Amino acid sequence: xxxxxxxxxxxxxxxxxxxxxxxxxxxxxxxxxxxxxxxxxxxxxxxxxxxxxxxxxxxxxxxxxxxxxxxxxxxxxxxxxxxxxxxxxxxxxxxxxxxxxxxxxxxxxxxxxxxxxxxxxxxxxxxxxxxxxxxxxxxxxxxxxxxxxxxxxxxxxxxxxxxxxxxxxxxxxxxxxxxxxxxxxxxxxxxxxxxxxxxxxxxxxxxxxxxxxxxxxxxxxxxxxxxxxxxxxxxxxxxxxxxxxxxxxxxxxxxxxxxxxxxxxxxxxxxxxxxxxxxxxxxxxxxxxxxxxxxxxxxxxxxxxxxxxxxxxxxxxxxxxxxxxxxxxxxxxxxxxxxxxxxxxxxxxxxxxxxxxxxxxxxxxxxxxxxxxx
Length: 374
Hints:
Helix Hairpins, Heat Shock Protein 90, five-stranded antiparallel sheet, elongated
């Protein structure tokens, strides 16, 4: 510190102390950075620190192995120059904090990576890569097991159901005192067949075994058919209305959307007490096409809503058994909507009813030159 007199001595002393405080801060920050890098290096997942221009600032060893990077050579280079996977580049162009994606590794064909972007600091991003090959193999085995078992059970159940129906229709084949038992057996056999069909459908959707058969779909015509099916299911016990924009069409699979919309409307009929009302709408709001079903049923408590699309999840098991549902309907709906880049929104208040919405993006909307029909 320079030697000063009077006021300069105080100035020099203050500058000296500030300089020492600054040096201590630099040492602490450097130590914290070293600890962060050491901890990140020990992670089994790949971690890449990217700046606002997606240039590599730092990465750990797993990231080098999984993504084919070399930190010493690749630092400050745009990651898109080094990782030339089309899906990865498309994902990187989107905003951060969206759902992670799964990609086949371009380094090893037998490896599946899960990639996720997370906001970090003011303008930086953390790119996290994880080897999920084992989980994918187990999931594939689970899907194959369900599909194979369901397929093998379908034939014997069809045979049993056929014989039960034949015996019930034959005069004198079933004693009157046993006819109720035969009716129960037929009912349970039909329920098992529905469950197996839903399991097979869900397995196909999850595995992506079938390609999406897309074409311009007249949604109003589809909803008119679903309305008739709902009225038949209700058997006059509910008030069911349809308000639809006939000019609003979609590029979609007719078979899959019939299944998804039919599931949502069917659930509204099953879970709405007699005398209740069900409103079906098809409209365009903020450049999105929205299919909605609103009922005056019992409603769903908030803690159950996030789990409704899980396989076999039941809010009320006794009530679900009474309606004849399989517990897979909303799982099927979710997968069908995902295949159409759409999302499922659920709004419900216990004791007042529920609204289920299927929201489709602008890219799937087609406008037809016809009038609106309500």
